[in-house]
Amino acid sequence: MRRTIGILLTVSLALLMTTGTVAARAPSTYLALGDSLAWGDGASVPARTAYVPRLDGYFHGAAGTTDLLNLAVRGENTGSFIAGQLNAAIASIADPATDTAVVTLSIGGNDLGDLLSVPPCSADPNSAACQFAVYTAFVGVSNNFPVIVGSLQAALDTDDGDEKLFVVTYWNAFGGTGSPFEVPVDFALLGTDLTIDCAANQADATKVGLNDLLACIGMVLGAVVVDLYPVIGDNALALTHIAEGDFHPNDDGYALIAQAHRRADRAP
Question: In this predicted structure, what is the pLDDT of residue 243?
Answer without folding.
Answer: 97
